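Model it.
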Amino acid sequence: MEMIVKNEKLKKWVNEIEQMCTPDKVHWCDGSKKEYNELMAQAVKSGSAVKLKKRKNSFLFCSHPSDVARVENRTYISYPSQIDAGPTNNWVAPDELKATMKSLYSGCMKGRTMYVIPFSMGPIDSPIAKIGIEITDSIYVVCNMHIMTRVGKKVIKKLGKEGEFIPCLHSVGAPLAKGQKDVPWPCAPMEKKYISHFPDENLIWSYGSGYGGNALLGKKCLALRIASAIARREGWMAEHMLILRLTSPSGKQYHITGAFPSACGKTNLAMLQPTIDGWKCECVGDDIAWMKIGPDGRLYAINPESGFFGVAPGTSYDSNPMAMESIKENTIFTNCALTDDGDIWWEGMDGSPPKHAIDWKGLDWPTERKEPAANPNARFTAPASQCPVICPDWEKPEGVPIDIFVFGGRRAGVVPLVNEAFNFDHGVFLGATASSETTAANIGAVGNLRRDPFAMQPFCGYNMGDYFQHWFDMGDRLGDKAPRIFYVNWFRKSQDGRWLWPGFGENSRVLKWMCERIEEKTEAVKTPIGLLPTIDSLDLKGLKIDKQDIKALLHVDVEAWRAEIPDIEKHFAQFGDRLPERLRKQFEALQERLK
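Modeled.
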């Protein structure tokens, strides 16, 4: 059955791109299994993918060593005026950026096929969903988009004649001359990589990288950078948040969203296995939440994605059994090691390492240089529907009603296990000052303190000072129906460097306390930084933990908090007069309480 496209604006745009990029042929993606299988067979035949013997319908791709992660320094937010991009984004004027990129795009798909991918972020019939069209010359991108979004004919039908779409243009930036042999992972050198966003026009242009969020333009580019700007204009929220449902023994459901910087256990929390009797947890989404106010005045969230693009190293049956169950079949692996029996392997996986493997760079492993077999940012792409604890309502068009916002980071000291905001404004302050110690997942010296407000610093599509104000505006509109706000830190250590809290499934004990706080069924102590549990109000039944450790986890060191003040001050200063007055007031109130 042929794709019938009635949208003239779309046809015109595809035609313009074809003339600029001059591909050998154009393929409109229908989203079918047949299409996926044919493209994968092509990728295997060309040597860019390996079919895994040990996992049904699963494949391994390995990228060029220069193309392994999101490239923040080549990611641009382009408004006519630099102040609208704000201090946390890279800015180039739209005319200048487009001129540079147009010269790169000229003839860039020569010798390749241009794929047109109609995709929906969110269930196609959801009032919160948005339609994007990605044009790409990468089979890897098409196959990942098949899993990560809803692709194909249904989207074109929904778009109709007049429907709006977000145009997303991507090229690996490696044209082929006649007779030239392709490489397994085509990409352009670093100085020619551009991931550009034009929020005023809802437009995304990406060039030169074939990897992850640089190339799968539905992910961070559309779902966060462009969507956050649209959400502000339209009065909703696009957030870097997991969504989970927690059900109490009596059957009461609570819906929780959480924002955490990378390497803070976000996916693990999204697929939590509670250790407390009678409580059940289900995953709605592991990375992004789009939230709108419903007819009843409450905030409703959907997961705009349909798959998981998870970090593989460190994922195991120990740390996240549900993720391991989700990737048994129909999964794309990127930059993992290939074992001799035709399976994948990465550091931190269960069992002992293989005696021999081919590492992500295609070399024999282990090596004398002691390099890891899998890239530290290696990934799996798996359908969310395969997760054993996926929530039955994860594709509910209207979304699920949110009760709780959780912020958090990785801190060895200072920040207690959990505290509750005094009110919504104070909660916005907690989100705006969120901090984490850097790990291998983000570039920079390991162990440095980095402020990552709302875990959105790399993903906010406009001036972050205005973004803070948008949170206040949403809180005002929600009034007494606004979700309650909490801040957590699973990573506190003792003086001798021991983890004080066991984490993983035991985190359900902290979530239970939050739910009981909403119901006004449990105690809290007022401290200068927020409301903390009493030792007796945390359910520790069956947990072997020293009372001194619990005391340390819930200790608020006033001196250490005073030492945080200059860093918060410096962090806020960068936003100048775009910093909301209400945030200044919260900061002054904290200083006052710390006296």
